Structures are given as structure tokens and as C-alpha cells.
Amino acid sequence: MDAVQAANSGHPGMPMGMAEIAVALWQRHLRHNPANPAWPDRDRFVLSNGHGSMLLYSLLHLTGYDLPMAELRNFRKLHSKTPGHPEYGMTPGVETTTGPLGQGIANAVGMALAEKLLAAEYNRPGFDLVNHFTYCFVGDGCLMEGISHEACSLAGTLALGKLIALYDDNGISIDGQVAGWFADDTPKRFEAYGWQVIRNVDGHDVDAVDAAIKKAKREKTRPTLICCKTVIGKGSPKRAGTSKAHGEALGVDEVAATRAAIGWSHAPFEIPQAVYDGWSAKANGAKLEKKWQRVARAYAKAHPAEAEVFKRRVAGALPAGWPAAAAALMEQTNAKAETLATRKASQNAITALAPLLPEMVGGSADLAGSVFTNWPGAVVVTPGSINTAGGNFINYGVREFAMAAIGNGLTLHGAFLPQAGTFLTFADYSRNALRMAALMKIRNIFVFTHDSIGLGEDGPTHQSVEHAASLRLIPGMDVWRPCDTVETAAAWIAAVERRDGPSCLLFTRQNVPFQQRDAAAIDNIRRGGYVLSDASAPRAVIIGTGSELQLAMAAKEKLAAEGIAVRVVSMPSTSLFDRQDAAYRDAVLPRGVPRVSVEAGVTEGWHKYVGLDGVAIGLDRFGESAPGGELFKYFGFTPEKVVSAVKSVIK
Ligand SMILES: Cc1ncc(C[n+]2csc(CCOP(=O)(O)OP(=O)(O)O)c2C)c(N)n1
Ligand SMILES: [Mg+2]
């Protein structure tokens, strides 16, 4: 309450209401080492109700993480390590960014899934190399959010027995008492998912919560929800139990009254040494990790090959053979010169790369046979085999949002490279998890197929028009829309190699022709935009992406026949192109040469490249239900249209 008061901003209610739950978990159960927040076998802790960030910061500070009191004093201040909501990468010990309610529990499901898969793959008789719990705090808000249904339903089905969620059942959210808008029987709901539910725990009784956690840990196959009855803002005489406690500072008088009521006489930010001594997890954490290190060393002696791959995966490094494999894929794909749908080219790339990448976990939202994120070596994870055979492909079911957020959890856990697919139009369903991946700067590969009107008969509900443009708006998101098999392979390689952010790979349903390129052009694909086909003294540049690149090429030929020389630039990834230096960008798009772009989607964003005097050919309306080829003609995606646009800009 003091930090929130000092910031005059924040959420005191949840930290005060979940304090005893935190005492039970963090003092009696959580296995972690404050000196090494990256210890691979630590228990994971996710604060899904991220507005209670001050609780997490207090716990990290008290148990001995590198988070000094000065940072707590600076809560919510610019460049502090204590931002308003927990942010991954900013604060040691914060396992994921939370705040968008419901996503934390989905991340936790991903972490618990990661633990299961890794344990199945690496543990050997006598060696529990991977053996940890994933704990998650959730509030009413998280459980109201639809994503909690998606994620928890799957967690129950997949029998993630080492996932333990503690529910802050305080009956309050921002608008008041939740009874008016959240009257589900939550225990029954989670039992229906196949969870163990521990009901009616007094969340202010440390021993009761402790006993519930013990019971949860004994359960081997079902995830556990511990329903803790709590009072929001407990301790505050006037605010306790009210929505007023949720999201505003208590005020100087109420802070004083709370101090008196709970008998805490110390000044703000003053913690007696005895309290620090009682809370410190440093000695025990060091002991726990040391013990694990001994296991890891013995494991490395007994199973050196496995140990080496495990170490590499945990470090997030690519295998030694990667550069050669990537080069071979590019070479072979180019040599084959196939006309293919890029979704199929994508599967070919996955098939070539996956054997090298045991960290790859594929998946689809009930569309594996359409999005082709599976490959011959993919092993579907099933409830029956998760503890033994493990696997590397998740049938997420029709749960796009959870799929993306669970993938984030897999990455955050470490040792995994998630990739999963659905139709591009349903990217919207998962959107905030894509944004969180970008915000956290974590690798996650989102495969989106059926990327335009080209999908045809399913019609406008399924035809993306604004999606490529809107995904490009997410800072740090690399969006790829390859035009053929070779660009598809390059996109996959870039997405796998990218360590500091997610990638969206947009693929066609329909066939696209192979494009001939020289070695320099092939090498330049990774720059996001490059000269695919040049002419001497070009009078215009045509920029194309994906399935429309072929229109640019056809137009170039027609124009050449009329004596008009143009250059074709392929721009599979605008963000990659934007990151190139000015000299490269100017070389590809020379100043003073007029430009035309062509993409079967909204024109938004393209004037950045064609300028105000250029022409952006696109589709600024929804599509129609008809065969894809017909729609391209109907909406003017033809070489003739590109030709006339070029003529209009060179005059
Ligand atoms: C997806 C999303 N929607 C809305 C919000 C804004 N918001 C933050 S906390 C909250 C209410 C949460 O209620 P509860 O989880 O019960 O928290 P409590 O007040 O009990 O701490 C809302 C609506 C958000 N953070 N995320
Ligand atoms: Mg609540």
C-alpha cells in the first residue's frame, strides 16, 4: 500500500487480499533461487492478475532477488524495474508480462506443458532432470475472460498435473460485486474441465492454503484449482471488501488507519532485518539449485548426448548444424523450382528443418490439414502419452487465442520453439497474444494461411483483407508474406533464427509460381525487400508481395514489350526492409523513380513505400464468395491493371 501510495497510482487491493496466499506459496512451497532467476528447473510463478504487480515485486524483494528497495519506492516511475504491470525482461524473477487478464494463466498452461514435454523427453530412471511445478495466481477477471476457458479446458484434457492455480475469490472486480456479472459455479466449471478443485479455502489462513497446495502437489494427472475466499484490500478499515480497493491508492489517512489496524508500526519502505531474515530464499534457493546441478552433472555423465542437446535448448541456441541445414534448404528449394501454394512450401520447409530442431513444438487450431504446420516426424501430444512419450505437436482444438498464449508460455519456459497455425483471418482471435510476444521480445512463430481473397469460395468471412497490414502495425512483429517456395524457406529460416521477437508467416492457399533469382537476390530475401527482376534505367518500380508478386512480373513483361523498362521489387517483409540501412533501402527503391505496389489487401501502409504520387493497388473492402481466380480478376488484380498503374505514374 505504501508503494501504491507513493506512486499515487496502482492496485493495492489484490496484494493485500492475496498476501497470506503468497506467504503460504512463497515461504513453504516455491522452489526458486533468487540469485539465479534463470535456473532451468525452478518452479514457475505467474501472476495472471497482473494488476497486483506490487505483490510480486514485494515477494521478489523480500526473498532476495536483485530488486532493491529503491525500485519499490520508484513503483510505476519511468525506467524503474517496477512498471505498473509485471514486464518480462525488466524485473528479475518476472516470468511473463501480465496485465491483459486471462493471458497469464494461458502462459502458465504453456509452461506446465513445457515441463511435461521436457520431462518426458529427457528424464531417465534415476534422473529427474526436469521436475517442477507451475503456479499461477488468477482473479475473477482472468476467469471471466474467454481465454481462461480455452487454456484451462486444454490443460485439463492434456492432464497437466503439475499446474496449480490459486484463485483470488474475492467477489469483487472494478465495477463492484461480481455477483451481477459473474455468477458461474467456478468449481463445477473446472471440475468439468477435468481439474482437481479444492473448494472453500480460507485465503487468509496460511495453514489452510498450505494444506491445499500440499494436496495439489500430490495430484499427478489433474491440474488443480485452489479456490481461496478472500477479502480485497484486507486490513484497510474503510476499503476492505470494496471495489474502491481495487485500483487506487488508499490515501494518506487510510494508509495510516490500515497501519494501525494491522499493527504495523514501521515507516513506509522500512523492513526490520528479522523480517528479511525470515523471508530470504537465498540460502535455500542456492541449496536447491546446487542439488539440481549435481543431478545435471551426473546426468551428463550417464547421458552425454541428451545432456548436450538439453543444455543447448535451455540456452536457446541453434544446433551446430543449423547454418549448413538452412543453406541446404535454400539451395534445394531453389533447385526444385516448384510451383506450389506457399502453405505447402511452408510444410516442406518445416519438414526439412524440424529433424534438426527437437525444440520445435508445432500445432494448429483444428486446421492441421489446411495450414500444414505438421510434418512427418510430428508426434501428437495426447493425454495418455504426455507423461511417457511426450510429443512435439499440439492439437490445440479451436482455441486460437490460447494457442498463441500457450506458445508464448512454451517459449518463456525455455527449451522450446513453438510454431502453430490457423487461417489468417482468425489472427484477430489471437491478436493480443501476438502483441504480448512482440512486447516481450520472445520468439514464437505464428503461421497464418489462406491469406487473401485467393482462398476463394469460403467468402469474405474467411478472406483476409486488413490482416497483413494490421499485423505489420505491431511494433517488433516481423510479418512475412512470401511469393514462392524460396521466399517461404527464407521466411522460416529468419523466423527460427530470430531470437528477439515473434514472426507471423502468411501463406497462400493457392499455388503461386516459382520465381527465378540470382544468388544475390536469394541472399537479399532476408533483408525483407530486394530487387527480384531489374531492367536498365527503370522508369518505375513495381513492389509486390505474396501471390501478387506474379502480377508484377507479368506486368513487367508486358511493359517491356511496349518499351517501358521497370524494376520489380519483392517485399516479403516490410519490417525487415525497414531495418536495413538507408543506403540499401535507397538502392532497392531509388529516389525519384515512381512506384506502384500490389497486394491483395488494404492499401494502408503502402504509401510509405510508393509515396503520395505512387499508386497502391489493393483491396479496401471485403471480398466475395467465388472461386479465387475469378475474384482476382473481379477485383482488378491483373497484370493489365498493374500496367495501367505504371503508365499513370510515369507520365
Ligand atoms: C483483458 C483485460 N480487460 C480489462 C482489463 C482492465 N482490468 C484490470 S483489473 C480488472 C478487474 C479484475 O477483477 P479481478 O480479477 O477480480 O481483480 P480484483 O479487483 O479482485 O483484484 C479489469 C477489468 C485488463 N487488465 N485486461
Ligand atoms: Mg476479484
What's this, in brief?
By secondary structure, the chain is of the alpha/beta class. The strands form five sheets. A six-stranded parallel beta sheet has the order 10-9-11-12-14-13, sandwiched between helices. A five-stranded parallel beta sheet has the order 1-2-3-7-6, with helices on both faces. The longest helix has 21 residues, at 282-302.
Written overview of the protein:
By secondary structure, this protein is α/β, with parallel strands linked by helices. 43% of the residues lie in helices and 13% in strands. The chain is built from 28 helices and 20 strands. The strands form five sheets. The protein has a six-stranded parallel beta sheet with strand order 10-9-11-12-14-13, with helices on both faces. A five-stranded parallel beta sheet has the order 1-2-3-7-6, sandwiched between helices. The longest helix is centred in the middle third of the chain and has 21 residues. It is globular. The mean pLDDT is 98. It binds thiamine diphosphate (TPP) and magnesium ion. Magnesium ion binds next to β4.
Q: What features would you highlight for this structure?
A:
43% helix, alpha/beta, single chain, five-stranded parallel β-sheet, six-stranded parallel β-sheet, binds thiamine diphosphate, globular, 28 helices, 13% strand, binds magnesium ion, 651 residues
Write the layout of secondary structure elements.
Blueprint: H1 2-7, H2 13-17, H3 19-28, E1 44-47, H4 53-63, H5 69-73, H6 103-122, E2 134-138, H7 140-144, H8 146-157, E3 163-169, E4 172-173, E5 176-177, H9 186-192, E6 196-202, H10 206-218, E7 224-229, H11 252-262, H12 273-279, H13 282-302, H14 304-315, H15 322-336, E8 340-341, H16 342-353, E9 360-364, H17 368-371, E10 393-395, H18 400-413, E11 417-423, H19 427-440, E12 445-449, H20 467-472, E13 478-480, H21 485-497, E14 503-506, E15 511-512, H22 519-524, E16 530-533, E17 540-544, H23 549-561, E18 566-570, H24 574-578, H25 582-588, E19 595-598, H26 607-610, E20 615-617, H27 628-634, H28 639-650
Parallel strand pairs: 1-2, 2-3, 3-7, 6-7, 9-10, 9-11, 11-12, 12-14, 13-14, 17-18, 17-19, 19-20
Antiparallel strand pairs: 4-5, 8-15, 16-18
Helix pairs in contact: 3-10, 6-8, 6-18, 8-18, 13-14, 15-21, 16-21, 18-19, 23-28
Bound molecules: thiamine diphosphate and magnesium ion.
